User: Fold these one by one.
Assistant:
Number 1:
Amino acid sequence: MALDLRVLSETSVSFWIPTAVLTAALAIKLPTIIRLWKDPLLRAVGGLLLLACAVFVFVTPSTIAWTNRVTGVPNISAPWVYSLLTAFCGSCLLLIIAWRNGLSDRSAATRRATRWVVSVYSGVIVALWVLFALADAPVERQRDLDTYYANTPYMREMILLYLLAHTLATLITSRLIWNWVRTDGLDAWLRWGLKFLGIGYATQLAFDAAKLTAVAARWTGYDLDWLSTDAAPPVACLSAVLIAVGFILPHAGQYLHDRRRVRLAHHELRPLYVLMRSVNGDGVPFLLRAAPELRLTRRETFIRDVLLPLARHIDEGLRARSYDAALGLGFTPERAKALAAAVAILDAVHAGDRAPRREAADDPDTTDLLQEIAAVSRALRHPDAVDAVRASAGAATGTHGPVAANGPSPKADPSPKADPSRTADRTGTTDRAGAEGPVLPHRR
């Protein structure tokens, strides 16, 4: 196992994989960070991911050698990488505190915790550079500096300081995250993201344990260097990937969820859109680069624009009868309302110009109808249910089969032709039985 880990740690692949994943996470977050630059939490996430990328870029052996060569100081990469790692740890703590408590939380405990993190980890970074300046480390070590200089004065303290600071930050961050995961009311994507973050930080504890064990073994005269040089780097890479996924998942998951919701809403409107297109004779012009939200908005606008004038031809009596019929067939009130609207709209569309047109002053309130276009469109996907409601509504008024598209309203005179002699100059002396007789049902 040690041999396999050594082969993996000797290659730069184990370092560049998490760098690529972290860079991808930063790239996914970057548009939102730029768009909402005033949001401190988003800026903090961007800075955190940037620090994580920098750690893995500068920790690779080739970059370590380049940094030492450019500066002309052997092993100067050590305090530089340790400083980046310490800054990353402090940023994690600050982000979790702000993320969980919210920016509006300015309680004394929150301010005290923030000041403690900033002061402690800033002091650690300063101490790392002071200890390195006091130490004597002339031999460049690209992979095993921690164990090689484990007994060297000041270098020993520097190595132990960064490991303890990292372990402390990891423990506190893990505890905060897992306590947060157990709270109620979290969004599912956020909960899964926190779980990945918690696993990632718990994995970092394994990294710290391997490093500390190898260093302590050197103090007692044992050689467990493979824990530091071969086991710890892959564990750190795995931890970085998990942390990157934890940051990506809430954002990417919500983005995909919103995209799916928009596309589903666009698809659900298709039956009503096709019906309105048959009325208008034309549809929404296709735009190749239109965003899904724009496509949905254009489809909704088109449907409402066609439906608004069509509402003057809708038989409200038929709509009310269809609603009662749908309830009688066992549909829920919401479904019955949508089915009744679908029957009335189909009736108006099929009637065309033959349907009576209301005056503008008599226009019905179409607010409900225009707001329920999605429910009506879903109802049109079930023509059998629409036909059953139509037939039942027609049977309830004494007709056989579906209601005619231009059938008379319940209050209309059903006689085939009105008698002019009976309508001329009526001032209340009209025979009531003769006037209202045709409306009554015939007795058998």
Number 2:
Amino acid sequence: MTEWRKSTYSVNGTDCVEVGQGVGVRDSKAPATHITLGPDAWTAFLAATKAEKLAR
């Protein structure tokens, strides 16, 4: 079983992305499914997310 954690940027704790170490990401509203990400994809995901945040 994977321990999932919610993003610290989640405002109300219901509309958020959850991360499972070594597993991937999932939507907190649809926890039965997830997207598997390898190390390179995870790094790219974080870089894109940070770039989006900085662009705002």
